[in-house]
Write a structure and sequence with these properties.
This protein is an alpha+beta fold. The protein folds into two domains: 102 residues, Phosphorylase Kinase, domain 1 (2-Layer Sandwich); 179 residues, Alpha-Beta Complex (Aminoglycoside 3'-phosphotransferase, Chain: A, domain 2), CATH 3.90.1200.10. It has ten helices and nine strands. Strands 1-2-3-5-4 form a five-stranded antiparallel sheet, sandwiched between helices. The longest helix has 22 residues.
Length: 305
């Protein structure tokens, strides 16, 4: 698929404001008079709308996101009181209507701002907050857990990662050292897999799914990938957000062993390598973070950061 086709596809799936108003009026008439305003987001799975001052509406942009909405409805109420920061609270469970084919939800609005890689106010305390959240997720023992979206073996990502590297070889203007990232990826493949039981994960700890207030972690959002799997999956912030000194604090707080570190670094790099060629023309936020991850990973392995 060409970049132009991708962009057209993304645009054609985006719900319009009038649809959101009709859905609210039809299913939650008590909120029908509240203002509806599209909220700018770098996310790729849901369209996000403010509803009045205290709520937010999330509508899947495609069939794949519908399952995420249902997953959150089931598990967020069970997870919320077990976690050290706020998580989304479902206030309304929307159903297909008005020609819109998927479930959707109304959540309580959570204040805060997304942290920006390279511009953190106080990265070391934030690293401690993030480690506390990950540790709390790992300590959850709820039965019947789903499998996390990214929770399987590293080798399951191999074909897609190598295909992305080859695609990046054909985009010299991105300046990716494809031999160097291949070496990091192959090191992750050689790392021993986790030999303990799977743990609970958020499994999508991107900056866009974190909220900070005064430089400290105040909330974690978008639990559509949550479930159990390899603990390395929740090490993403080490490279997609934190500078080297805070990265060290994050790892030490979680007592990350060498094999988990290598898998976590490889998983984070894999996501960035796949995202960069796909989103470089259609989603500036995702592409920017992918470039940051590649620089951070290569800087670390080359002893530069």
């Amino acid at each position: 698929m060409s970049a132009e086709q991708r962009q057209q596809t993304h645009h054609s799936r985006q719900p319009v404001d009038d649809l959101v108003r009709r859905l609210i009026a039809g299913q939650f008439p008590r909120w029908a008079g509240l203002a509806v305003k599209r909220f700018p987001s770098g996310g790729t799975v849901n369209a996000v709308y403010r509803l009045g001052d205290g709520m937010v509406v999330r509508l899947p942009l495609g069939a794949g996101g519908a399952g995420d909405i249902l997953l959150e409805r089931e598990w967020l109420p069970r997870l919320a009181h077990r976690l050290p920061v706020a998580v989304p609270e479902v206030l309304g469970a929307g159903e297909p209507a008005e020609g819109y084919p998927w479930p959707w939800s109304v959540y309580r609005w959570l204040p805060g701002a997304n942290p920006e890689e390279g511009a953190l106010r106080d990265p070391v305390p934030l690293a401690g907050d993030l480690a506390g959240f990950v540790a709390a997720m790992r300590s959850v023992t709820l039965p019947g857990a789903p499998t996390a979206h990214r929770g399987g073996p590293v080798a399951a990502l191999d074909a897609a990662t190598r295909a992305a590297i080859e695609e990046l070889r054909g985009i010299p203007e991105e300046g990716v050292d494809c031999d160097a990232v291949t070496a990091v990826w192959e090191d992750a493949l050689r790392a021993p897999e986790e030999d303990g039981p799977p743990v609970w994960l958020h499994a999508d700890l991107m900056p866009g799914n974190l909220l900070v207030d005064g430089g400290r972690l105040s909330a974690v959002i978008d639990f559509g990938c949550t479930g159990t799997g390899d603990p390395a999956c929740d090490l993403f912030p080490a490279w997609n957000l934190l500078p080297a000194d805070a990265r060290k604090v994050f790892r030490e707080a979680l007592d990350v062993d060498d094999a988990t570190l290598r898998r976590g670094r490889g998983r984070t790099l894999s996501q960035a390598l796949i995202a960069l060629p796909y989103y470089r023309h259609t989603n500036p936020a995702m592409a920017h973070n992918a470039r940051h991850v590649i620089r951070a990973v290569l800087g670390e392995v080359l002893g530069e950061g």
